[in-house]
Design goal:
Layout: H1 3-12, H2 15-27, H3 31-38, H4 45-56, H5 58-79, H6 86-109, H7 117-129, H8 161-171, H9 184-250
Helix pairs in contact: 1-2, 2-3, 4-5, 4-6, 4-7, 5-6, 5-7, 5-8, 6-7
């Protein structure tokens, strides 16, 4: 078994077995390989749970990445002003994440672990929408999803070919051809969803612009009010000092 495979085996273990197994593996090696293994970080509970889905429910994990890729593409397309089914992509992505969270929770419970479901959902979202600093199946720390506004500038790591193959296989209905063209009815339904998504995007952009303008006005008003408050406070403090001085003079 290669060193990479032996390292993979470490990340499949229950949390309390990681350190002893890492120590044993390091002792069986020498030189740089031993140093590398000794430096491996034990995953915290949330990334460890995500790793288990990768190792033991690969089809579920692949769907999260596939739907995340589809959603990211739809969002970027919408940002460029072209019609796309953002709503449908978002729904599919949420369902995939919910399924992954359920699988992670179940796998973790087998080792007596109880990861926070909200943190799991956020990490699955992050893993599927942005470039990850660690390899799939070897995450050691929680990840937080970046904001939507970061999509345009974030370098995205492509889905590994092995996971893409799993996702595409899962996404193809039984008996259907992967390259099948949509029927006329399906094409009309898709076009309608794209038009609805585009309209929703336009309304969202208008609402966002209005909200940002209102916020700017509110911040200006707040600054003015704060200035007046500070000015009034300073005046009160000066009068209080004057009164105190007069009282002291009276008491002499």
């Amino acid at each position: 078994m290669s060193l990479e495979s032996r390292i993979d085996e470490l990340y499949k273990l229950p949390p309390d077995e990681f350190v002893p197994a890492r120590t044993a593996l390091a002792k069986s090696l020498t030189g740089d390989e031993a140093k590398r293994v000794k430096a491996l970080t034990k995953p915290t509970i949330v990334p460890w749970s995500v790793n288990q889905v990768y190792w033991h429910a690969r089809d579920v994990y692949a769907r999260v990445l596939k739907t995340g890729e589809t959603l990211r593409d739809a969002q970027l397309t919408a940002l460029k002003g072209r019609t796309t089914d953002v709503r449908g992509a978002t729904t599919a992505h949420r369902h995939a994440i919910a399924e992954a969270v359920k699988a992670a929770t179940s796998l973790a419970s087998e080792s007596g672990a109880q990861p926070d479901v909200d943190l799991l959902a956020r990490m699955f979202e992050a893993v599927s929408l942005q470039k990850t600093p660690e390899s799939h199946g070897r995450f050691t720390r929680p990840l937080q999803p970046q904001g939507f506004e970061a999509l345009a500038g974030v370098e995205i790591k492509a889905m590994p070919p092995s996971l893409r193959a799993v996702a595409e296989k899962e996404a193809t209905p039984a008996g259907a051809s992967p390259g099948r063209k949509p029927t006329a009815a399906e094409a009309r339904a898709l076009k309608k969803r794209e038009q609805e998504a585009a309209e929703a995007a336009r309304k969202h952009a208008a609402a966002l612009k209005t909200a940002e303008t209102t916020l700017a006005h509110a911040k200006t008003a707040e600054s003015r009010a704060r200035f007046e408050w500070e000015k009034a406070k300073k005046a009160v403090e000066e009068v209080e000092r004057a009164v105190a001085d007069l009282r002291n003079q009276t008491g002499r």
